[in-house]
Amino acid sequence: MSILARLATLLGRHRQDAETVWDALPPAQWLIVGLGNPGLKYVHTRHNIGYRVVDELMRRHDERFIGVPGIPARVARTGVSEHGVLLVRPTTFMNESGQAVAPLAASYAIPADHVIVIHDELDLPAGTVRVKLGGNENGHNGLKSVTAELGTRDFVRVRVGIGRPDAGKSVVDHVLEPLQKGSLDLDALHDAVRTAADAAEIIADRGVPAAQNEIHGRR
């Protein structure tokens, strides 16, 4: 057997194993979506905090992202307690995130109030995490896209504070510049990633009020 044939066989077995594990999981009842921009230059920016949170969840559950034919997203399926969860990383740019969220929600018949969107929030101090259901978009283009594509604002948000820019710095520069090692914001956001991941798991397991009570009470 040629090397290419062996590789094809191994890949086929891996795909079958992955499908077997996927089929054994509970049906997806929640979408947990991390907003961000694709590409290496955005990896360490404040705007990509949502990506970092779903990556943390993927690590906790020992899952891997896979592509979805026809949908601009990479997903990982897992469970929180007995609840099936789909972790989602849109592969669009931030302002088109809804193009990934809406078709996935429709495919799995997941209602808007079971869609959890994790995003950066200018109006919270860096590192603060807050949970809410519905509300306006506060100028956030990713949230605007999700609202437009879902046709409602009634989805859950896990808001990760990044703070406002210093005087003289634009919002665009603030959200898109790479965070520097040793900066206070970097340390705060590192902790916030874990807190936001906790929040998403609590929501999927016990609901929004339980997450608000626990997460908002943390110092």
TrEMBL record:
Residues annotated for tRNA binding in this entry: Y42, F93, N95, N141
A Gene Ontology cellular-component term: cytoplasm
The enzyme's E.C. designation: 3.1.1.29
Keyword line: Cytoplasm, Hydrolase, RNA-binding, tRNA-binding
Chief localisation class: cytoplasm
InterPro entries for this protein: Pept_tRNA_hydro (IPR001328), Pept_tRNA_hydro_CS (IPR018171), Pept_tRNA_hydro_sf (IPR036416)
Annotated site location: Discriminates between blocked and unblocked aminoacyl-tRNA: N37
EC class: hydrolase
Residues marked Stabilizes the basic form of H active site to accept a proton (site): D120
Catalytic activity, as annotated: an N-acyl-L-alpha-aminoacyl-tRNA + H2O = an N-acyl-L-amino acid + a tRNA + H(+)
Superkingdom, taxonomy of origin: Bacteria
Molecular function as annotated in GO: peptidyl-tRNA hydrolase activity; tRNA binding
Compartments reported by the entry: Cytoplasm
A single GO BP: rescue of stalled ribosome
Active site: H47
Pfam (any one): Pept_tRNA_hydro
PANTHER family the record matches: PEPTIDYL-TRNA HYDROLASE
Quaternary structure note: Monomer.
Function: Catalyzes the release of premature peptidyl moieties from peptidyl-tRNA molecules trapped in stalled 50S ribosomal subunits, and thus maintains levels of free tRNAs and 50S ribosomes. Hydrolyzes ribosome-free peptidyl-tRNAs (with 1 or more amino acids incorporated), which drop off the ribosome during protein synthesis, or as a result of ribosome stalling.
Similarity-based family: Belongs to the PTH family.
Record's protein name: Peptidyl-tRNA hydrolase
Organism: Corynebacterium nuruki
Gene (name only): pth
